[in-house]
């Protein structure tokens, strides 16, 4: 009988006997992770050089190949026992399927249960690149596998950069998790870490399990160990529980719960440390965030954080908290936004967690509660509008006061292609009613007219130049407001767009008197091929027709003399797609001095190559008690640069020219020689607290792809200040 005839006879045997799907797939090599079972009764196609049948026994030899349901198996020979549903391969086999590849020296598999054992196995998981060797692999059914005396890595090559050597590894494809027992982590062949148990992902899905632990040490806290445990509750719910042991403080328990719906999302998180050994009392943090809407028009926002004491962040700062916050907000806002109507009801208060001695400012007032509404008739000619607010202010050592503010207004506007005109007449009534003491009132009228042109011309070289002159006249009546309290009012820094504001103060408590004309002009030069603004210039100033009378205590009026404002100039130059420079200047013509200056030159070649150098100068930044002033002069360097596929650097340096010292310095470097591991190191010099005490930190992080990150989170710290969204620097993190 020739080999071809034997092959045909074997195929005929399959068609008549109709081997079960498990015999053709899971029997010879168990179904690998993620491979669906064949339909019941499906046939496997087998080819071989020779087949010998002896009742229920079949021996197939010579280039044996079995294919079924997207799987392929090759072996020198197979033995099949039909009565026992058993397949034996003593001369080795190779298997390829969706999700796994393996080779084994021997295999013994039960076809009816899909269970069996493979001896001397090399395996590879195609879902995440994990691979290794095992003395034996047991197929437990249900896409579960037990690997004994085994290794695991995601690195290529005979000498992987890192490797797990475990007494036993269990892989569960249904859960997408791997569990290793009595495991040694080797990096560069050197054993660095032992753990009796380790849980790690074998796919890209979310799974319940132990996340990478965090190890650390500090002089205040001692040795630190955090073991976060992730709980995948549902596709739109999850939670993380994190026990954190601080050898000099005690055991802290943290937790976070997140939810996501079609119109709502948020999280609730907290930390609790009973009987802090250094602090002498219980410590806690609670945080809640929510954003959502009901129907088309109603929205709800909650943003609240509370800690047990003011030193919490400085002592116990974690991923749930920052170490430089001075005030914690508790806010709940219910909003309504419909055509012509915007309304909100809110409650807001603050908890001081860092004394604001640097700015010499008192704690902000609580708003418990506040109601706001804005109404505007449709734009069919003149429009009627109303802005109204009722709010109750309170704080320690202050008299609770209710403030009512009403601002009805009449608007008119016309906007054509080459010009526009807008006018407004308004009247503001404000009443302060304290719980004890007299009621105070203020009534002020105002009117404004805003007109401008939009001119453009085609230059000889084909470029387009625009010229946009603008005049803004503002009249606001004067009323003595020195007896009125200051709850939420401040003086805004002057810049080009603030020249056209209707009030030189921010907030309700002060309304600046005005009889003034703002003149401004902008021009742009547009490249015809790309439509890009290559050069844009702006110049403006407020010209007053009477002396200013209204001022705010302590802060003063920045950028104004008795009548006129400083001259404000802006410029932006972008000669190429990558280079850009910006300039902002505020100068006082009366005494020929510059009060504000800001210059920045930057290069941007995508999110992974970004560099900029900036200079800032603020003169008379604040007018403090006693007539003293402050001046700020700083240089700021930012760099986020991918040198090649392996090296990245990131840096920020803020230097004070006035005090001749660094304000803050961040410097980091990342190295990723392959897709399986990366390391990052950074140095940070920063201000620790309001007293100006400085601190330093050296941060080190090692990432083993497919296993987790060990050490301090570095890129997350640095890229909040430097790296643009979507950068490879943030994408380096393994999810």
Automatic annotation (TrEMBL):
Q: For the LptD C-terminal domain, which residue ranges apply?
A: 282-647
Q: What InterPro entries does the annotation carry?
A: LipoPS_assembly_LptD (IPR020889), LptD (IPR050218), LptD_2 (IPR045659), LptD_C (IPR007543)
Keyword terms, alphabetized? Cell outer membrane, Membrane, Signal
The source's superkingdom equals: Bacteria
Coiled-coil regions, chain positions: none
Location(s), subcellular: Cell outer membrane
Pfam families documented for this protein: LptD, LptD_2
Q: Which residues form the LPS-assembly protein LptD central domain?
A: 184-261
Signal peptide, first to last residue: 1-23
State the protein's purpose.
Together with LptE, is involved in the assembly of lipopolysaccharide (LPS) at the surface of the outer membrane.
Q: How does it assemble?
A: Component of the lipopolysaccharide transport and assembly complex. Interacts with LptE and LptA.
Protein family per UniProt: Belongs to the LptD family.
The name under which this protein is listed is LPS-assembly protein LptD
Natural source organism = Spectribacter acetivorans
């Amino acid at each position: 009988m020739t080999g071809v005839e034997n092959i045909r006879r074997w195929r005929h045997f399959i068609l008549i006997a109709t081997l079960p799907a498990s015999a053709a797939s899971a029997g010879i090599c168990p179904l690998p992770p993620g491979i669906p079972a064949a339909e019941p009764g499906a046939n496997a196609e087998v080819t071989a050089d020779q087949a010998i049948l002896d009742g229920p026994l079949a021996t197939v030899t010579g280039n044996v190949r079995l294919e079924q349901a997207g799987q392929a198996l090759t072996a020198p020979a197979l033995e099949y026992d039909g009565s026992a549903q058993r397949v034996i391969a003593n001369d080795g086999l190779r298997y390829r399927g969706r999700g796994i590849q393996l080779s084994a020296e021997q295999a013994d598999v039960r076809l009816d249960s899909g269970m069996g054992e493979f001896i001397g196995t090399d395996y590879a998981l195609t879902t995440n690149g994990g691979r290794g060797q095992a003395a034996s692999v047991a197929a437990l059914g249900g896409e579960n596998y037990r690997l004994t005396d085994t290794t695991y890595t995601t690195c290529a090559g005979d000498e992987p950069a890192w490797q797990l050597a475990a007494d036993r590894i269990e892989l569960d494809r249904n859960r997408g998790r791997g569990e290793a027992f009595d495991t040694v982590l080797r990096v560069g062949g050197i054993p660095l870490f032992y753990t009796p148990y380790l849980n790690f992902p074998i796919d890209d899905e979310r799974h319940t399990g132990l996340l990478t632990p965090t190890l650390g040490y500090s002089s205040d806290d001692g040795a630190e160990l955090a073991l976060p445990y992730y709980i995948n509750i549902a596709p739109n719910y999850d939670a993380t529980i994190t026990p954190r042991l601080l050898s000099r403080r005690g055991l802290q328990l943290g937790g976070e719960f997140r939810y996501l719906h079609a119109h709502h999302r948020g999280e609730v998180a907290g930390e609790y440390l009973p009987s802090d050994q250094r602090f002498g009392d219980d410590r806690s943090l609670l945080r809640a965030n929510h954003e959502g809407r009901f129907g088309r028009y109603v929205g709800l926002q909650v943003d609240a954080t509370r800690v047990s004491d003011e030193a919490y962040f400085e002592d116990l700062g974690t991923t749930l908290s920052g170490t430089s916050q001075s005030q914690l907000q508790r806010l709940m806002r219910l909003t309504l936004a419909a055509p012509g109507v915007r309304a909100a009801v809110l409650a807001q208060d603050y908890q001081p967690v860092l004394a604001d001695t640097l700015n010499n400012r008192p704690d902000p007032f609580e708003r418990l509660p506040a109601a706001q509404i804005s109404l505007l008739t449709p734009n069919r000619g003149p429009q009627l509008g109303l802005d109204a607010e009722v709010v109750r202010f309170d704080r320690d050592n202050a008299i609770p006061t209710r403030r009512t503010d009403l601002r009805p207004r009449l608007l008119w506007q016309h906007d054509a292609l080459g010009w526009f005109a807008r006018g407004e007449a308004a009247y503001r009534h404000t009443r302060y009613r304290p719980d004890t003491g007299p009621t105070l009132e203020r009534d002020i009228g105002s009117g404004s007219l805003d007109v401008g042109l939009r001119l453009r011309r085609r230059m000889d070289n084909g470029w387009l130049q625009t010229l946009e002159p603008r005049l803004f006249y503002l009249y606001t009546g004067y009323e003595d407001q020195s007896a009125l309290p200051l709850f939420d009012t401040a003086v805004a820094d002057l810049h080009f767009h603030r020249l056209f504001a209707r009030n030189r103060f921010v907030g309700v408590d002060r309304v600046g008197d005005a009889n003034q004309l703002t003149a401004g002009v902008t021009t742009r030069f547009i490249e015809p091929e790309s439509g890009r603004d290559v050069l844009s210039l702006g110049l403006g100033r407020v010209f007053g027709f009477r002396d200013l009378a209204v001022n705010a205590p302590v802060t003063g009026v920045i950028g104004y003399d008795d009548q006129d404002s400083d001259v404000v100039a802006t410029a932006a130059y972008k000669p190429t797609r990558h280079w850009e420079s910006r300039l902002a200047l505020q100068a006082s013509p009366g005494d020929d001095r510059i009060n504000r200056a800001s210059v920045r030159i930057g290069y941007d070649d995508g999110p992974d190559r970004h560099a900029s150098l900036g200079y800032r100068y603020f003169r008379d930044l604040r007018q403090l008690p006693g007539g003293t002033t402050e001046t700020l002069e700083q240089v700021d360097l930012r760099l986020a640069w991918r040198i090649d596929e392996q090296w990245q650097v990131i840096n920020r340096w803020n230097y004070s020219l006035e005090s001749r010292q660094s304000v803050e310095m961040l410097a980091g470097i990342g190295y990723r020689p392959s897709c399986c591991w990366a390391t990052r190191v950074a140095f940070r010099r920063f201000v620790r607290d309001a007293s100006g005490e400085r601190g330093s930190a050296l941060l080190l992080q090692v990432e083993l792809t497919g296993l987790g990150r060990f050490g301090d989170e570095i890129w997350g710290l640095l890229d909040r200040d430097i790296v643009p969204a979507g950068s490879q620097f943030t994408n380096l993190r393994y999810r």
